[in-house]
Write a structure and sequence with these properties.
The complex is a heterodimer.
Chain A lengths: L2 E5 L3 E2 L5 E8 L7 E7 L6 E6 L5 E3 L7 E6 L4 E6 L8 E9 L4 E5 L3 E5 L2
Parallel strand pairs in A: 2-11
Antiparallel strand pairs in A: 1-3, 3-8, 4-5, 4-9, 5-6, 7-8, 9-10, 9-11
Chain B lengths: L3 E2 L3 E4 L5 E7 L7 E6 L6 E5 L3 E2 L7 E6 L2 E6 L8 E7 L6 E2 L3 E5 L1
Parallel strand pairs in B: 2-11
Antiparallel strand pairs in B: 1-3, 3-8, 4-5, 4-9, 5-6, 7-8, 9-10, 9-11
The chains are: A mainly beta, B mainly beta.
């Protein structure tokens, strides 16, 4: 059974760094890519970046200067770090499993709500 | 970035047929996918590569289109279909989503 679960702080101070963890089960990070997708309340999702199955990474150019994605395959975890957070970074952050090389998302975690506020 | 435009909302009665549209700012071939998001839940995949039904999704859902114009059809609509529907393209980096169409049942 494929599962993804995000964890991390719900509240981050402006200008601080967000650190999130995605813990997966039911599939191997060496066989599937995992993306991070965020969604402001009431708006459409935004693809942030991807950890490829081979360990390479890809980032949305709008976030690339602030974003880092890494993984620990032994723990079945993918990590997101984004610095210089502002209030418009508030939203729900999801990790997703990516199917094949056609870049769509067949499983999603339940999401973690992140609020950027002082 | 490729912009995907969706109508904000639709209201239909159970048993009717409804089509939800998504228009891309440039051709995305058939690299268009559809998701359903119920309130308070994560999105779930309905249709991939424009017209392929995801496993476990009822056959009431179907997708069509290519190039810049795409359609998600529900026929017939059921009460449980109340949700927001998003399209997503994977033709050009960064992969983008539409703003969503909120489907309400009368």
């Amino acid at each position: 059974q494929v599962q993804l679960k995000e964890s991390g702080p719900g509240l981050v101070q402006p200008s601080e760094t967000l650190s999130l963890t995605c813990t997966v089960s039911g599939f191997s990070l060496s066989s599937y890519s995992v993306s991070w997708v965020r969604q402001p309340s009431g708006k459409g999702p935004e693809w942030m970046g991807r950890m490829w199955y081979d360990g390479d990474t890809a980032y949305n150019s709008a976030l690339k200067s602030r974003l880092s994605i890494s993984r620990d395959t032994s723990k079945n975890q993918v990590f997101l770090k984004m610095n210089s957070l502002q209030t418009d970074d508030t939203g729900t952050y999801y990790c997703t499993r990516d199917r094949g090389n056609n870049y769509y998302f067949d499983y999603w975690g339940q999401g973690v709500m992140v609020t950027v506020s002082s | 970035d490729t912009v995907l435009t969706q109508s904000p909302a639709l209201a239909v009665s159970p048993g009717e047929k409804v089509t939800i549209s998504c228009r891309a700012s440039e051709s995305v071939s058939t690299l268009m996918h559809w998701y359903q998001q119920k309130p308070g839940q994560q999105p779930t995949l309905l249709i991939y590569l424009a017209s392929n039904l995801e496993s476990g999704v009822p056959a009431r859902f179907s997708g069509s289109g290519s190039g810049t114009d795409f359609t998600l059809t529900l026929d017939p609509v059921e009460a449980d279909d109340t949700a927001t529907y998003y399209c997503q393209q994977s033709w050009s980096d960064p992969w983008t989503f539409g703003g969503g169409t909120k489907l309400e049942l009368k």
